[in-house]
Backbone:
């Protein structure tokens, strides 16, 4: 169903139907949208209207309608309107593990600039950045992700060679963290199930998944908090049930990751639901 109109003065975020490994949104903001934050996914998007401005890798970037935005995992960035008219955009957040399925253990592709006009990336993102009312079929999503992974590698000028590290160890660690994110995971547990010492494993994990094991664990907790909050679970209970020490501990990580407090995030997400 098409998104219902929302009053122009009200910020909003609308989410597409959930799909494994990706999150798709469309949003409109006026003024400051996000404080400086970072997440463990690729954030790839397109500006639809206005000027979308953000600070990224030592400089300010301005994305105009039609530009493609590519933000690498764990790279700090913020977000705000570049003019008084506000901005509208679509974004897809992609787990690096999905790109690894296509790249087969190569180091993750990296683009430095944050904003690009490269026609290869514009074409490769067309399917994934459709209107959020469009539900991607599983094969459609898989093909589009593979196309995007290879386009990113090509634009980055990355040779198709395997990364220097133990990909299987990193994958085992990721699977273990997915299964145990609601509790404290000890370093010796990861060393035992991967056969790697903690320093080598940290390097492996960053090479293949773009972030550290602890950041990955924290993100899985925050993903669960968002799902629970949207279903009406109080934030204090959601924090406790997902392994955080308390609500304030969860809130600190939430702001660092999404650039908004949990309460404000719920407000802008709910703006579309109320419309």
Residues:
């Amino acid at each position: 169903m098409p998104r219902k109109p929302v009053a122009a003065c009200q910020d909003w975020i609308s989410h597409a139907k959930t799909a494994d490994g990706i999150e798709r949104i469309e949003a409109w903001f006026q003024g400051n949208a996000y404080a400086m934050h970072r997440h463990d996914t690729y954030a790839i998007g397109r500006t639809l209207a206005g000027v979308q401005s953000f600070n990224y890798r030592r400089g300010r970037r301005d994305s105009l309608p039609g530009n493609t935005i590519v933000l690498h995992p764990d790279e700090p960035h913020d977000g705000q309107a570049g003019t008084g008219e506000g901005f509208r955009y679509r974004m897809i957040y992609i787990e690096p593990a999905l790109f690894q399925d296509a790249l087969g253990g190569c180091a993750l592709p990296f683009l430095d600039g944050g904003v690009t006009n490269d026609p290869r990336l514009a074409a490769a993102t067309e399917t994934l950045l459709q209107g959020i009312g469009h539900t991607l079929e599983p094969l459609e999503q898989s093909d589009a992700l593979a196309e995007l992974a290879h386009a990113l590698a090509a634009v980055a000028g990355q040779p198709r060679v395997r990364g220097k590290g133990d990909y299987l160890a990193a994958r085992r660690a990721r699977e273990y963290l997915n299964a145990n994110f609601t509790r404290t995971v000890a370093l010796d547990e990861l060393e035992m199930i991967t056969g790697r010492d903690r320093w080598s494993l940290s390097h492996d994990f960053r090479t293949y998944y773009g972030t550290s094991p602890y950041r990955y664990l924290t993100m899985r907790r925050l993903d669960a908090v968002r799902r629970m909050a949207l279903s009406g679970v109080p934030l204090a209970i959601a924090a406790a049930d997902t392994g955080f020490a308390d609500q304030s501990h969860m809130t600190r990580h939430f702001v660092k990751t999404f650039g908004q407090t949990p309460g404000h995030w719920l407000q802008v997400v709910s703006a579309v639901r109320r419309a």
About this structure: Residues 138-155 form the longest helix (18 residues). The chain is about 40% helix and 20% strand. Residues 1-7 have pLDDT under 50 and may be disordered. The two ends are 13 Å apart (CA to CA).
